[in-house]
Each structure stands twice: as structure tokens, then as C-alpha cells.
Recover the amino acids of this structure.
């Protein structure tokens, strides 16, 4: 489940616990972003979070549990970001195009979040939180509206999710030609064609002006 620290704690003690949990998750995300692994010791994590060693076990039983929470939190953060930007769009195809293009640009705008998603995003494509349910929702809306021609939304979700994570990997190691102007539009066009849009429509939708973020 997504991290529950986002809920408003009822009293000072709960607020302090929420801050500690958030600090531990942020420390784990920083380690994932910098090292690409979860090999840091609990002592190193606690020092980075600026909390006592014993505080770790008030929130997590193991390191694996903490690093899972770090990835889940990053996925949910990114999902909410995409929702905030695409919320006013009516065309499911455009929603997908914007999502793909923003994902390709994520390495520039949110580099730490990008590295966390690259490290741990793949196992969560079909989770009931984060990016998976949002992408599945948009695929089903596209099917219902006739914009997409997808026999199995879940199979399409696997293909799209893997493609988006692959984009992050490509962007992280791309040459100037691969990551230059228009690369995000080309990627969006390919995904739209995969979902059943005719080539001409996919080309046009993928090159519409990006909406402005509301958060």
C-alpha cells in the first residue's frame, strides 16, 4: 500500500512519527537514486535521515520493507503528478501522449525520482497503486471511447509500463541525438500506434502542446 504518512496526523506525537517515517523514506530514496542499490546499512540510513538508530524499528521491520516503501512512495508521487497535469484533458490518446512525453523528460525535471523508478518500478506495474491503475484506467477509457483498439487492457498495460520504464533507462544513457528535441514526441507516437491509433492521428496527437502543470 502507499505510504500513509501523507494523512494528517491527529496530535504532536503522531506528527513527529510521520516526520520520522518521511525522513527514513526520503533517505532510502536518496540512496537508491545515488547508488542504484539498497546495500546501505540501517545505521547509514538512520544517519542520513538524522534520526536515532532505534527509530528505524518503530516504522519498519526490515530494510527491504523500507526500500519497498521508498519505491511505492515515488510511484504514487509520479502518478499524482501526471494526474495533475492531464486532469483537464478529454482525449484519452492525448492523456497517454502527455504521460509518455513527461516520462521521457522526467530525467531532467525530477532526476532523483527518475532513478528511483528505474531501480524499482518494474515489479509494480500491475500494483493497485502508483502508475499501474492510472495507466489501466486510461487504456480502458481509450477503449471505451473508440480511440484505442486493445484486446486486453492488462497486456497493453504491461507493454506500456515496460516501455515507459525503458524510456527512463534510455534517457539516462542517451546521446544528445537520442534525447534531443522531438525525441519525446517520437516515443509518444510509437506508444499511441501500439495502442491502436492510426499513424496519422498518432503523429498529430503526440505533437500537441503540453499542458501546464497545476502543482
Amino acid at each position: 500500500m502507499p505510504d500513509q504518512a501523507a494523512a494528517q496526523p491527529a496530535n504532536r506525537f503522531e506528527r513527529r512519527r510521520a516526520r520520522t517515517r518521511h525522513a527514513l523514506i526520503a533517505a532510502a530514496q536518496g540512496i537508491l537514486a545515488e547508488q542504484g542499490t539498497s546495500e546501505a546499512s540501517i545505521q547509514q540510513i538512520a544517519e542520513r535521515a538524522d534520526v536515532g538508530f532505534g527509530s528505524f524499528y518503530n516504522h519498519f521491520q526490515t530494510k527491504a520493507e523500507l526500500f519497498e516503501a521508498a519505491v511505492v512512495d515515488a510511484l504514487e508521487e509520479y502518478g499524482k503528478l501526471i494526474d495533475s497535469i492531464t486532469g483537464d484533458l478529454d482525449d484519452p490518446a492525448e492523456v497517454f501522449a502527455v504521460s509518455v512525453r513527461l516520462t521521457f523528460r522526467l530525467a531532467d525535471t525530477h532526476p532523483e525520482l527518475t532513478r528511483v523508478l528505474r531501480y524499482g518500478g518494474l515489479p509494480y506495474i500491475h500494483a493497485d497503486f502508483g502508475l499501474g491503475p492510472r495507466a489501466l484506467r486510461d487504456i480502458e477509457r481509450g477503449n471505451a471511447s473508440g480511440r484505442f483498439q486493445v484486446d486486453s487492457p492488462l497486456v497493453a498495460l504491461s507493454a506500456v509500463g515496460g516501455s515507459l520504464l525503458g524510456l527512463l533507462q534510455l534517457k539516462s544513457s542517451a546521446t544528445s541525438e537520442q534525447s534531443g528535441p522531438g525525441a519525446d514526441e517520437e516515443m509518444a507516437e510509437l506508444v499511441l500506434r501500439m495502442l491502436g491509433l492510426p499513424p496519422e492521428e498518432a503523429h498529430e496527437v503526440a505533437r500537441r502542446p503540453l499542458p501546464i502543470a497545476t502543482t
